[in-house]
Fold:
Amino acid sequence: LGQVQESLAAGVLEVAVQASPLDPDAWFRRGNVRIRLGNFEGARQDFDRAISLDPRHGLALGNRGALKADTGDKEGARRDLEEALRFLPPTQTSARKTFEQLLEGL
Structure:
């Protein structure tokens, strides 16, 4: 998506998290958009919130792990990525492969 579309998506997801603050997927989706907009701290906060609502949210754990790896928190990244792989269903092959590769690189 282009920058304008990403900004619009962020606005829609802002409404979504306000309307459904207990929906971990809304927080996860907004975190993904925030990554694409370069708001890494905001994305991490959104992933934290998604995980607090659903501690088995494999995609949120994996994305937070990737952010931790990028900021040098290798131990935190390792924990999150291992948990992500534990909770991701086998059908999530692309995410599993990405998280496995990140884990191997730590």
Remarks:
- Residues 6 and 63 are 18 Å apart (CA to CA).
- Helices lie at 3-19, 24-36, 40-53, 58-70, 74-87, 93-104.
